[in-house]
Write a structure and sequence with these properties.
Elements lengths: L1 H4 L4 H15 L3 H4 L9 H9 L17 H15 L1 H19 L3 H7 L6 H4 L1 E2 L14 E4 L5 E11 L6 E8 L6 E6 L5 E3 L13 E14 L5 H37 L1 E2 L2 E2 L4 H30 L4 H26 L11 H11 L6 H12 L5 H4 L2
Parallel strand pairs: 1-4, 2-4
Antiparallel strand pairs: 2-3, 3-7, 4-5, 5-7, 6-7, 8-9
Length: about 375
């Protein structure tokens, strides 16, 4: 949908579709075995080389300055094949956008232009939550020469075991609010747990982390963390919606192909009315998801009023459409839909994992209605 109205996005679509077909489609089941199987380091480095890890960054920082529509086109096409790589791209974009919004120019220039591989270019962060809703956060203490040290635990740090650096939400002692800190994950003062085996996105790993007086750099100002997150969340909610749209389309394509190849009762099962109706429902939901992502991108790029809320609404709806559609995708394949080597059960799991990006849906819906009603945001009230 985006490329139909923005021809300048076609090269991003072609690049992502080609990459997905060549590097991901035939190895999806293998990649999904992590952390019990090997991690796809070579694929990730290739994604870095073609620019997928820096879509929103300007060129002087090692990015491609593509904009939110370009990021959505790339995530859509990548997630049709394997959304784990989409999760990595998404998490890195979230960290980069918070740092950019905070005008952390020194930190940005220190990390991204000097990177020589994916690990050095990646910045871990807790992308499966709204940091303001996290119950347990590390504490930050001021040290000499304007620096800080972090103490305590942080759960589910996405990319924590594969990224060189991390953007950590923490509370400064004696200061209200939430703050972000950039830190090197390679020091002895950072203790990482084993990769967490979650529901989906297995090759987009997360770990629990303990900080023992770990040196960190403040990003933005003390107490500005929630405002920074809110400022960038519109873009990233639409990016998450594009991931769900891609999973939905991947499931539909697989279901459609199977229905044409599978013969039962003397005919292709696509001729069965029950199967045709399942496929029709999936096709409608794919079109609606496309429209939601395209309209949300337009609202963000045009600076429309309430663009942040519209982006969250689009994401919530597309996530729900995707979860419904991938369930139908499993049903079209019958018993085979539950088997790993057919891919539909992975999409079923991944869809629900992606739905949790940037926080759970019920909290997002409460935030939406409170904005419409003119009530104070619950998370903002907590500070």
């Amino acid at each position: 949908m985006l490329t139909a109205t923005h021809t300048d996005l076609k090269p991003f679509e072609d690049l992502a579709a080609s990459f997905a077909a060549k590097e991901l489609a035939k190895k999806t089941e293998e990649h999904d075995t992590y952390p019990f199987g090997p991690f796809f380091t070579k694929v990730l480095d290739k994604a870095y080389e073609v620019g997928f890890l820096g879509v929103l960054l300007p060129e002087d920082l090692g990015g491609i300055n593509g904009g939110i529509s370009a990021l959505c086109v790339i995530l859509d096409n990548i997630c049709r094949a394997d959304s784990s790589l989409g999760g990595i791209i998404f998490t890195n974009a979230l960290a980069q956008q918070i740092m950019t919004e905070a005008k952390a120019d020194t930190a940005l220039k220190k990390i991204f232009p000097k990177a020589s591989n994916a690990r050095e270019f990646l910045v871990a962060c807790p992308s499966f939550c709204n940091p303001a809703q996290m119950v347990k956060l590390p504490t930050a203490e001021r040290s000499g020469k304007g620096g800080y040290v972090l103490k305590g635990n942080l759960e589910y740090l996405v990319l924590g075991n594969i990224a060189a650096n991390a953007l950590i939400p923490a509370r400064v002692e004696g200061k209200p609010g939430l703050s972000f800190f950039l830190m090197d994950l390679g020091g002895k003062s950072v203790k990482k747990g084993e990769p967490i085996f979650s529901l989906g996105l297995h090759a987009c790993p997360a770990v629990d982390v303990t900080f023992e007086d770990a040196v960190a750099r403040l990003v933005g100002e003390e107490g500005s963390g929630y405002a920074l997150f809110q400022e960038v969340s519109g873009k990233l909610h639409v990016a998450a919606a594009a991931m769900s749209a891609g999973i939905l389309k991947g499931s539909f394509s697989a279901a459609l192909a199977y229905s044409r190849e599978r013969f039962q009762g003397g005919c292709q099962i696509i001729n069965w009315s029950e199967v045709s109706m399942l496929l029709a429902n999936m096709a409608v939901k794919a079109d609606v998801a496309d429209l939601c992502v395209a309209q949300a991108c337009q609202a963000l790029e045009s600076g429309a009023r309430d663009r942040g809320r519209l982006a969250v609404s689009a994401a919530v709806h597309v996530h729900e459409l995707c979860c419904e559609a991938v369930n139908d995708g499993v049903q079209v394949l019958g018993g085979n839909g539950y088997m790993k080597d057919y891919g539909q059960e992975k999409r079923y799991r991944d869809a629900r994992q992606v739905q949790a990006l940037l926080g759970i849906s019920p909290m997002k819906k409460i935030s939406i209605i409170r904005q419409i009603a003119g009530l104070e945001d619950i998370c903002a009230a907590a500070f």
